Amino acid sequence: MLTSEATAAALLTAEHASPTERLSAADAAMTRHSVRSYLDVPVSDDEIHALLELTGRAPSAFNLQPWRFVVVRDQEVKNALKEAAYGQKQVGEAPVVIAMYSDMEDTMAHLGDVVHPDLAPDKRASTIAMLEKNFGGMTPEARAIWGNGQANIALGYLLLIAKSEGFDTSPMLGFQADRVKAILDIPAGATMTAMVALGRGADDGFRSHRHAVERMTSFR
Ligand SMILES: Cc1cc2nc3c(=O)[nH]c(=O)nc-3n(C[C@H](O)[C@H](O)[C@H](O)COP(=O)(O)O)c2cc1C
């Protein structure tokens, strides 16, 4: 397991990335596009680890961090995922496909993992009791929807961080969730957040088309 410092070092020594090549958040936001064609260039374990460590820095309500990842490199598994994704070619072509899901049942079963370690024991216990009461009172379906809302924050982080670190991505929801869960042994009660094809793009994707600030904002 890499430490944060090792993560930063891995990113800085990785072939594709140097401090001068890394994009700012603003530059990554402006230049990121969905890319659906990939070069046959591998992504190393250290690079994936670093990307997911940075993705895991995403905030979540009560710090529950319900997001989970399955990193797929095996070509046969990618081929099966491609079929479950209606033949979307980037699933078979990208060197890595990250299946992202939210698992509130796992979160609820391990609330001690999310409570801040610096809290005094009595405060830890009362925080866990509060979370059990808040979320235990919800139906599993409502909990799952709530958790997936949080997981989407991490999805945004992953897409932006990947671009910043020199990778292209294609986020997808166009797949049969039950088939993907079965292929990857993802718990039935979990919610698929997205599949993300990741690697070095063979093209730049389409020019982005976005709302102007005035179209999506009102000022009072
Ligand atoms: C959650 C999510 C699911 C998506 N699902 C698909 C998909 O299944 N297939 C696909 O080709 N693009 C998919 N997209 C890509 C969107 O169409 C794309 O992000 C949008 O048109 C904006 O283009 P851009 O990503 O190039 O900026 C998805 C994007 C998101 C965020």
Properties at a glance:
12% strand; four-stranded antiparallel sheet; binds flavin mononucleotide; 4 strands; alpha+beta; 220 residues; NADH Oxidase
Please give a quick description of this structure.
This protein has 220 residues and is of the alpha+beta class. Helix content is 46%, strand content 12%. It is globular, with a radius of gyration of 19 Å.
List the topology elements.
Layout: H1 4-13, H2 25-31, H3 45-55, E1 67-72, H4 75-84, H5 89-93, E2 96-102, H6 104-109, H7 121-136, H8 140-164, E3 168-172, H9 177-184, E4 191-199, H10 213-216
Antiparallel strand pairs: 1-2, 2-4, 3-4
Helix pairs in contact: 1-3, 2-8, 3-8, 4-9
Flavin mononucleotide (FMN) binds at residues 33-34, 36, 88, 171-174, 194, 205-206, 208.
How would you portray this structure in words?
This protein is α+β, with helices and mostly antiparallel strands. It has one domain (4-203): NADH Oxidase (3-Layer(aba) Sandwich). It is 46% helix and 12% strand. It has helices spanning 4-13, 25-31, 45-55, 75-84, 89-93, 104-109, 121-136, 140-164, 177-184, 213-216; strands spanning 67-72, 96-102, 168-172, 191-199. A four-stranded antiparallel beta sheet has the order 1-2-4-3, sandwiched between helices. The chain is globular, with a radius of gyration of 19 Å. The protein starts with a helix and ends with a helix. It binds flavin mononucleotide. Residues 33-34, 36, 88, 171-174, 194, 205-206, 208 line the site of flavin mononucleotide.
